[in-house]
Amino acid sequence: MRVTSEMPPIPWHKARRADTRQPLTPEAVVEAGIHVLDREGLEGLTMRRVAQELGTGPASLYAHVSGKDELLELMLERISGEIRLPGRPEPERWKEQIKEVCREAQRVYTAHRDITVVSLGGIQLGPNKLKVAEFVVGLLLSAGIPRQVAAYALDGLGQLIDSDAYEASLYTAKIAAGVDVDAYFDGVRDYLARLPEERFPLLKEMAETMVHGDGDERFEFKVEVFLRGLESYIER
Amino acid sequence: MRVTSEMPPIPWHKARRADTRQPLTPEAVVEAGIHVLDREGLEGLTMRRVAQELGTGPASLYAHVSGKDELLELMLERISGEIRLPGRPEPERWKEQIKEVCREAQRVYTAHRDITVVSLGGIQLGPNKLKVAEFVVGLLLSAGIPRQVAAYALDGLGQLIDSDAYEASLYTAKIAAGVDVDAYFDGVRDYLARLPEERFPLLKEMAETMVHGDGDERFEFKVEVFLRGLESYIER
DNA sequence: CGCGGCTTCGAACGCTGTTCGCTCTCGGTT
DNA sequence: AACCGAGAGCGAACAGCGTTCGAAGCCGCG
């Protein structure tokens, strides 16, 4: 209910949004989306919230983006552009370099909260993601891994990174929400330790071992295991 | 607007819901939830829809279940109970038996659409899930895999199963929605084949290889790779 | 100068999870 | 036998969601 609805527009208020914001392009919408995502997570990423970030209403976004799904995919592709690859592939260090890429990808995705659910949801073919894939597949082939194995491995590594980044982001979200994660894991350990001996002897006894290690350590381990498995496919 | 609001209750209508439905317990709510999930997927699983399934309104559910999140976790745990384990662990066949468990888990989860997003979201400690974990960790230890490695491996295998089942469910959902998945993959292959030579030489050339193989084949491969990697940790 | 097409956006639609408060039932106590 | 409190059931409502519609405004081209 604007009381000024009958009044002439105040001249120096005219281009108010244009002062602080560029004139609304798909890129600007994506950027605003990423801002909201970083601040409030995927759950808080609503079209209304993104529109607010741009000083407008939700309906305005639909001129630049077909809907929330497309916005999410554009955001994911934009974020994938942040992944930095090693300067040049070094085939003799293929395992180490693939690990570097995995670490970097995991770092970038985790930095943007739970964006990776989008990635888990389907194949992404944007240039930024493809660039990473091209680099990794090159390393695999140069290591002597058969083509079909390399293709499947690309899939597997992507899934590993995505699901791990998703899990990691949920913990950082919990921390941000004020949950004491250490206490949570203590609770899990105690729960396991108190399991009935006759049904879960191993889990009960391994309670301490089960909760040991942080996310990075576990991620590092999974990648190492996968790469060791891949190594066994090398043909000479 | 019931016109009978002033009339005495018609006796044989009295227990109308009780005739067809048990008197609403947490178990009944979970079961109804699974019915809706199977029929309409996680997206179609709403509190209203579950309530409708039970012949009541959404508010009634909250007496038995604290909210949608808890309902989902209860559903996941109930579904985990469908996973059948081999009769007894056979340490000399540990790899094959772990594969059997993975296949079975993947089958069960995929049969219930995209329920595994819940699993990706955190640690589940229900007895049904723990039973599977106990079995697998027993096999790993009996194979000579160090305790800490076994603990991490449990995590890794779970993640593999969950993310794969999630992906698989999305494709079956697409099929159910009438999408021609073969045509979709043909499109992906053509897209890859038409990539610019100078930027993506490998992906371009490997287009056919990249889209080769169905979900089961890829899943089988990933599990095999992971297990081969695990094998290298065995200490004698 | 006029006009057609694109952008902008207030309002609305149908949906969601959840809460409130009233009614009703039923088991246990006085 | 009477009562009463606890819990279950549930209609109504709230705040918020993604998305659509239609009117208005703007800009560049003819």
Q: What low-confidence regions of chain A span 5 or more consecutive residues with pLDDT below 50? A: 1-20
SSE series of chain A: HHHHHHHHHHHH
Fraction of residues in helix of chain A: 55-70%
Oligomer: homodimer
* Rg calculated over all Cα atoms of chain A: 23 Å
Distance between the termini of chain A: 76 Å
- Shape verdict of chain A: flat
- Please describe the biggest sheet of chain A, giving its number of strands, its sense, and whether it closes into a barrel: none
* Beta content of chain A: under 5%
Most extensive interface, residues per chain?
A-B, 58 and 58 residues
The tally of helices of chain A reads 12
| Helix-strand category of chain A | mainly alpha
| Mean residue pLDDT of chain A | 91
Give the number of DSSP strands of chain A. 0
